[in-house]
Structures are given as structure tokens and as C-alpha cells.
């Protein structure tokens, strides 16, 4: 059977068009190489570290994540996990950062920078951002859940105990003092809440906890004052008078000795200029 010339012409045109189409797909469809997929481990680490140094923590975290995935073993990978946790910490992703550094500590307990890992773990919870109310209304951070505060204290304590000669030990001790005072203040907040509600047994128990657990903290004076009031309200005037003498001996300038302590204030009234809810007078014992 003879093929008509017109059919052969059309076939050639279709073939030429198909060739150009395939060539076009090859030319314009070629993807640009991703450096995260092509760089070696050293170059990849340098890229992530440089991003951290510039404050580009999002790019740093992505780079270290890819490095760890592509090169699961080796010194660069180990260091990348610490740097990744730091980037997540600076990005205000404390849960991710804590998980990353905690995994590192468990995996590489003898790493030469393990002391820094413990220090960073403490910092992550120490520096958790205040919420909206704390920032704009002025609520005391010690009125919030203290779980992260206690965890931070324990993490710094682990560093000081395990690595007392570490360059991070001195700063950790100072932070522990700050955290300890904060935990004492949180207990005092609860004691004052019970006192205000007339739950004098509960208030006295909290005050005794402060005195026994946080000896030397600035809140001990207020805890003694709470005990004075609570014992008096419970009809234990002998204990109240004894505690008042201890208060006067150790904190002679405490306002409870002159009356007018504590001053009950509502944080919501801070929104109103020059507002004051008044005070409940306290007689000197």
C-alpha cells in the first residue's frame, strides 16, 4: 500500500514538534541544585554555623537538620546537634530546643562540650518568654506554674554538681540563686492567698515550708509574718508571740511589726492609674 505524500509530510512535522517539546522540557525543567543536598559535611556545618553567627537561626536550624539527616555520625554531626538546639532556643522554640539538647546529652554523655549542653538545657527553661498578661499587665512571673522554673534549677544544679570547674558553673550558681528566690516567692504567693481567704492552717504550712526549704531567701521575713498572723487567727497566741519575736530579731524593719501588712492588691487594678485596693492592718506582736 502506497502512503500519500501529504501523510508523510504531516508525520515529519509531528516528529519534529515532539523532538523540540522534549528538548524544551529538558532545558526549562532542570531544577537548580540545593546546596543542602550537595555540600559535604564540613561545608554544610560551616554554612549552619555562619547562619547562627549572623542571627539567621531559621536557616541555621534547617541546615543542621539536613546535615544530621545526611551524615548521622561523626564529630560535625555531634556538634551540629548542640548548635541546632541553640538555634531553636534563639527562635523561641523551647520545646524543640529542650528535646534536641536532651537527646544529645543522653547520646553523647562524654562529649567534650557536655558541660555547655547542660548549661544550655538550663537556659532553655530559664528564658521561656513571658506571656501577654505578664508583659503588658505586669503580673508576677512567680504566680505562674513553677514546673519550668524547677526544671531549670535542677538542670543548672546538675551542671554544677557534675562539672564544678566548668566555665559555666559560676553563672549557673547565680541563676540558681535567682530561681530559688523565685520559687520561694511562688510559695509566699500561695501562703498569702490562703491567708487572704482565711485558710490559716494552709497559710501557716506554706510559710513553714518557705522557712525550712528556702533558708536565707528574702521571702523568709514575710513567711514569718504570715506565721504570726496565722497563729493568732488560730488562737495560738503563744506561738504567734514567739514567732513575732523571731521576726523582730531577724527583720526589725519588717512592715508587719508596725501594722498595715500585707497590703492586698489586685493585679487588674494596675490598669487604672493611681489605684490601690487598700490594706489589712496587722497589729505588732
Overview features:
285 residues; mainly alpha; Serine Threonine Protein Phosphatase 5, Tetratricopeptide repeat; 67% helix
Range of helix content: 55-70%
- Average pLDDT score: 83
Q: Specify the overall morphology.
A: elongated
CATH class of one domain: Mainly Alpha
Strand/helix succession: HHHHHHHHHHHHH
CATH architecture of one domain: Alpha Horseshoe
Total helical elements: 13
Q: Indicate the structural class.
A: mainly alpha
Main sheet record:
none
Query: What is the CATH homologous superfamily assignment of one domain?
Result: Tetratricopeptide repeat domain
**What's the alpha carbon Rg, rounded to whole Å?**
33 Å
General description of the model:
By secondary structure, the protein is mainly α. The chain has a domain at 36-112: Serine Threonine Protein Phosphatase 5, Tetratricopeptide repeat. The protein is 67% helix and 0% strand. It contains 13 helices and no strands. The chain has helices spanning 5-28, 35-38, 41-54, 57-70, 75-90, 94-107, 114-126, 132-136, 147-162, 169-196, 200-213, 220-233, 237-250. Helix 3 (41-54) runs parallel beside helix 5 (75-90), helix 10 (169-196) packs antiparallel against helix 11 (200-213) and helix 10 packs parallel to helix 12. The protein is elongated. The termini are far apart.
Write the layout of secondary structure elements.
Elements: H1 5-28, H2 35-38, H3 41-54, H4 57-70, H5 75-90, H6 94-107, H7 114-126, H8 132-136, H9 147-162, H10 169-196, H11 200-213, H12 220-233, H13 237-250
Helix pairs in contact: 3-4, 3-5, 4-5, 5-6, 6-7, 7-9, 9-10, 10-11, 10-12, 11-12, 12-13
